[in-house]
Design goal:
homodimer; alpha/beta; ten-stranded mixed sheet; 12 helices; about 20% helix; about 25% strand
Chain lengths: ~475, ~475
């Protein structure tokens, strides 16, 4: 009898050869097949093409020199020294990097798994990530032709497997794994437990065994940190201390106060996605009875405040990496389905950080332009799919340069997509006439804020001090 | 507090207006929102566009005169009198009918729900259902551009719902419901039970509440028969009595014996899809320890023999409507995922019935050409996605006309797709040189079979009598 079960990760990856293409599951560390990655790195292969969401999945392979090409949403590590090495590899032509908007990343893999070679998507139109791609109008809106992603191998991380290879996933460890399991020509699953045939509820199987070629039962590892060591999310996802204003001189709003200003815009029943940076603070400050439903693109709908030490689970983090809790009525899905909610226009609001916002509503928040070591994540998907985008950011850069500008000079995330901007100095609306200054941080004057803004501010007729 | 719960089906559909477009869930009767359909029919609306898999979902609306346009995979009822009325409506121009291959039907709805306007598919290339559509080559293979399907309303049938609208589905009642719930601008769910927020396991929610606008708890109805009455699947899915040969004169193989000849081709570990007609018999004759995994496009992998009276469940039928059992290791998925297995080339064999097979391997099995009242089902998806196709059929029509021909005269299902043909007279291989006759039904000669064949038969060097 042929069995799919392998006794070791080493045996399971033994036939991956130099130059192979490999899909690697996981979003942040959750759902990442670290044991298979270790075994793959130990093979000392060269010239691999790896398709993985972020540096959690790809960095150890980069550092080990296994890669020729990388397809990823967030490839660059956060650690400055690693980031420098990543940039050097790229600049010397030793590593080819294709950055893909995160929802498009999910859909391209899903299309591959579903046997569909290409599809049109509204995401990324007008940005550099769409350059050279066919654009066509459907329903009065431009769409980009995106092609399917498949690979010789898929390495996925599941929870239970039966001997046929039926798989389920632990909480948000689902993320990209089901789509990747379908898109690998040979799919290898690292699983936490092997159960008997018939033990899994047929309706609870997420990946049917038909897609799975090998199953390796092996104890799960926790997340990889930026230093290539593993440690718990308690460290990886730690929220930056931000109780003090970051600038000298006159007091600006703290990150928490900027977050609270945005919370005043929220209403019961709204579905909201929160990006990296100040937006993550919003989830933690929302009262439990707010009625606001938080969406996270790794595959959560209805998450709540940050988890405390006792509640933490590596498989229950938001897309920005923070350990979170689930609210009653929460549900868990794949990342592909999470982005379907975005692209299908079911979200009411996206709150994002920014590098620059222009007076025409253009947003730049994913690249400083000359940086190969960058990632785009889900931002392009958000601005293409969500009708209202609020930007939260410091009014100026650390060096004091204005971030509100006439025209963005950095690569765009989306054209004319920003509705409002909450900074540590002001609450601003983007109108057809440009920036409308509605509220000022207490203690600041119109002229002072205008002096730190590289575009004209129009004072609202009822311009007033911000209230909390 | 706004609640999604409605006390009656009538209230839930009260704002559907003349001319609206409506998606209706269900595959055969399973997962069909019959209570919502009743309420909709009672409204006496006109000019609706309805998107539903088969006559189970659409016939009552057709009969009630509600429809202007129909998008369906199997629209025509089986009942001859109903079929005649259906044809008359179509011929008089009172009803526009768009027939869509079943897997493409699932994907077009999914694309709509996922916010993607169009995609390329390998299904239906070279057939009349692809005529007028853009064709483009990817990976050396032609693909057809298919567009998304969405609608003003989606009527779905779920199992449990919580007040937020999170849904799960009972067994194979899942089918098209999750995709349709995402593709409706207003989605109305008929559910069997309302549970408290938090009662559903987040990981077991199939349709997140973000997609659901109204929930109606109401007792489930059983399946609709061809006469518009409801009765159990015991009647609807009954297998035709086929223990006697259907032709006079010299004995031919019974349907069971033709099925057994195909079973000799099966090996442990093979994944096999069985079409309508003789192929359905195969599933019932397979020994339990065969190791063959049966796939059903409504969303089952690993089903077994027909269910007996005590085991029958309206939500556990194969795609051909027979009540079936689940084997250990079975899993249940949506129809979209079931067709992903097909299009993604994971099936080893498709066994289909046919109207005509040509010596170049062309297959015609979905339309008699001049019949508006027809359906295509999943056959085009199967032949586009499965490398080996065995046709089982009677060697001649009821009128005695040959079904093995030089060139098909009926509309094609696929070009050059048939590998072997099992008839009640012979076992034939399709080769580059044409039909290779390998085995004869005992008692029949080469010349006798050739005389009932409208293409040249090449006798195999080792031509012999069939053994069972």
């Amino acid at each position: 009898v042929i069995t799919k079960v392998r006794v070791s990760a080493a045996e399971a990856v033994a036939d991956i050869a130099d130059g192979a293409s490999v899909l690697v599951g996981g979003f942040a560390g959750g759902g990442t097949p670290f044991n298979l990655l270790d075994a793959l790195i130990a093979r000392g292969l060269r010239g691999l093409t790896v398709i993985g969401n972020s540096y959690f999945q790809v960095w150890p392979l980069v550092e080990a020199g296994c890669l020729r090409r990388l397809v990823s949403s967030f490839p660059a590590p956060r650690d400055p020294a690693q980031r420098e090495r990543f940039r050097a590899l790229h600049d010397h032509g030793d590593l080819e990097v294709e950055v893909v908007p995160q929802g498009t990343f999910a859909e391209r893999i899903r299309a591959g798994g579903f046997g569909l070679p290409a599809f049109f998507s509204p995401v990324g139109v007008g940005t550099e990530l769409a350059s050279g791609k066919e654009v066509r109008r459907f329903g009065g809106r431009d769409h980009v032709l995106e092609t399917a992603l498949t690979a010789d191998f898929a390495l996925v991380k599941a929870w239970h497997a039966d001997p046929y290879g039926n798989l389920d996933y632990h909480l948000a460890a689902r993320n990209f794994n089901p789509a990747m399991a379908m898109a690998g020509r040979t799919t290898i699953a690292e699983v936490e437990a092997l159960v008997a045939l018939g033990d899994l509820d047929p309706a609870a199987v997420v990946t049917p065994g038909i897609f799975v070629d090998r199953v390796v039962p092996v104890p799960s590892q926790v997340a990889w940190t930026a230093r290539g060591q593993r440690q718990s999310y308690a460290t990886v996802g730690a929220v930056k201390d931000s109780t003090q204003p970051r600038f000298g001189g006159k007091p600006r709003l703290t990150r928490e106060l900027v977050a609270l200003r945005v919370i005043r815009e929220l209403e019961p029943g709204m579905h909201v996605n929160l990006g990296t940076g100040i937006p993550t603070v919003i989830g933690n400050l929302l009262p439990p009875d707010s009625g606001v439903v938080l969406h996270s693109e790794n595959g959560l709908l209805g998450y709540g405040r940050f988890a405390d030490e006792a509640e933490r689970d590596v498989d229950l983090v938001s897309a920005t990496g923070e350990p979170v809790t689930l609210s009653p009525g929460a549900c868990i899905m794949s990342s592909g389905e999470a982005f379907a909610m975005v692209r299908g226009r079911h979200l009411d609001l996206s709150v994002l950080g920014a590098l620059q916002v222009a007076e025409n509503g253009d947003l730049a928040n994913w690249s400083t332009g000359h940086d190969a070591a960058r990632g785009v994540g889900g931002a392009m998907d958000m601005v293409a799919g969500v009708g209202r985008v609020i930007v939260t950011m410091e009014h100026t850069t650390l060096a004091g340069a204005p971030k509100l500008v006439e025209r963005c000079t950095l690569p765009l995330t989306g054209r004319g997509v920003v509705s409002q901007v909450a900074t540590d100095l002001a609450w601003i609306e983007v109108t057809p006439e440009g920036f409308l200054l509605r509220e000022l941080t207490p203690g600041w004057t119109f002229d002072e804020v205008q002096a730190l803004t590289a575009a004209r501010l129009h004072p609202a007729p009822n311009l007033r001090e911000m209230e909390m």
